[in-house]
Amino acid sequence: MLITRRTASTQGSALQTADTDASQLRVSDSHASAISLSGVHLTLPGPAGPVNILRGVDLEVPQGVALGVVGPSGSGKTTMIMVVAGLERVTSGRVAVAGTDYSGLDEDGLALFRRDNVGIVFQSFHLIPTMNALENVAVPMEFAGRADAFDRAEEQLKRVGLGHRLTHYPGQLSGGEQQRVALARAFAVQPKILLADEPTGNLDGATGQQIIDLLFELHDQHDTTLVLITHDMKLASKCDRVVRIADGLIAGEGLAKAAE
Ligand SMILES: Nc1ncnc2c1ncn2[C@@H]1O[C@H](COP(=O)(O)OP(=O)(O)OP(=O)(O)O)[C@@H](O)[C@H]1O
Ligand SMILES: [Mg+2]
C-alpha cells in the first residue's frame, strides 16, 4: 500500500511540473494532495474520561497551497497539525502526507519522514537554549547527514536577516529574532510541508508582520505547502484557502464563515 501511494505521489508531483499532456491532469486530485486527511478521529484519555478531540476530519490540501486554519480555542487546530506532523497517531481514519500513508510507518519511520519533509514553527519558538543561532539551524541538518549543514545554516540565517547574530544564544535574541531562527531552521531542509501554529502569537504587531511577510516569502520561494493556524482573520485572509475548525470538525471554509 505504501509503495502504491508513493507512486501516486510521484505522479502527482510530476503532473504539477509537467504541463505537456493536459489529459493527465484529470488524474484524481487526491493524488496531488500534499496533505490528505480522511475520516480522522483522535480520542485521548482525559481526567474525566476519553476526550474526542478530532471527530471525523476530511481535508485535502494540494501541493504549494497556503491553508489558513481558524477556530475557537480548544477546537482541535493544534491537534490537527500534530496529526499532520505525525507527532500524534490517529485513533481511526487515514493520514497521508506527500503521498506517504502514515499507517505504513513505525515511530522511527515517522521521525525520518518528518525530518525530511515537514517543518514546524511554534508560537513559543522551541529553540534549543544551549545552542547558538547557527547551531540551532545547522544541527538538525547534520542529523540528516548534510555535509554542508553549517554553510547552509549560515545562508538561511542571512536570508532571514540574522547574519549578524549567528553566535547569539536564544536568550540573547529578541522574540522576533528567535522566531526568525525558527523559520530559518524550518526552511533549511526545504520541507514539502510547513506547519505554523500561531507563529506570531508571542510577538508584537510590527514584529509579527515581519515574520508573516518572511513566512509567505519563503513559502513562495520554496513552493512549500503551508498550514497556518491563526486567530487573526486578516492574516488568514493572506492564505489561498481558509478552513474553520469547530469542536473537532471542519465546520466551514472561507473567511465569511470563519468570521461568524
Ligand atoms: N494530550 C491531551 N489529552 C487530552 N486532551 C487533550 C490533549 N491535548 C489537547 N487536548 C484537548 O483537545 C482539545 C483541542 O486542543 P487543541 O490544542 O488542539 O486546541 P486548539 O484549537 O489548538 O486551541 P488554541 O486555539 O487554544 O490553541 C482541547 O479541549 C484540549 O483540552
Ligand atoms: Mg492551539
> Which structural class should the secondary elements be placed in?
alpha/beta
CATH class: Alpha Beta
Major β-sheet strand ordering? 6-7-8-3-9-10
Task: State the distance separating the first and last CA atoms.
Answer: 41 Å
**Which spans have pLDDT < 50 for at least 5 consecutive residues?**
1-30
Keywords:
260 residues, alpha/beta, Rossmann fold, 6-stranded mixed β-sheet, 4-stranded antiparallel β-sheet, 39% helix, disordered N terminus, binds adenosine-5'-triphosphate, binds magnesium ion
Task: Summarize this entry quickly.
With 260 residues, the chain is an alpha/beta fold.
Protein described:
- Helices cover 39% and strands 25% of the residues.
- By secondary structure, it is of the alpha/beta class.
- The protein has a single domain (2-259), classed as Rossmann fold (3-Layer(aba) Sandwich), CATH 3.40.50.300.
- The chain has a six-stranded mixed β-sheet with strand order 6-7-8-3-9-10, sandwiched between helices. It has a four-stranded antiparallel β-sheet with strand order 2-1-4-5.
- Strand 9 and strand 10 (249-253) form a beta hairpin.
- Helix 5 (133-143) packs across helix 6 and helix 6 (149-159) crosses helix 7 (175-188).
- The site of adenosine-5'-triphosphate has 12 residues, from strand 1, strand 2 and helix 3.
- Magnesium ion (MG) binds at residues 77-78, 197.
Please outline the helices and strands.
Elements: H1 2-17, H2 29-32, E1 33-46, E2 49-62, E3 66-70, H3 77-84, E4 92-97, E5 100-101, H4 107-117, E6 118-121, H5 133-143, H6 149-159, H7 175-188, E7 193-197, H8 205-222, E8 225-229, H9 233-236, E9 241-246, E10 249-253, H10 255-259
Parallel strand pairs: 3-8, 3-9, 6-7, 7-8
Antiparallel strand pairs: 1-2, 1-4, 4-5, 9-10
Magnesium ion (MG) is lined by residues 77-78, 197.
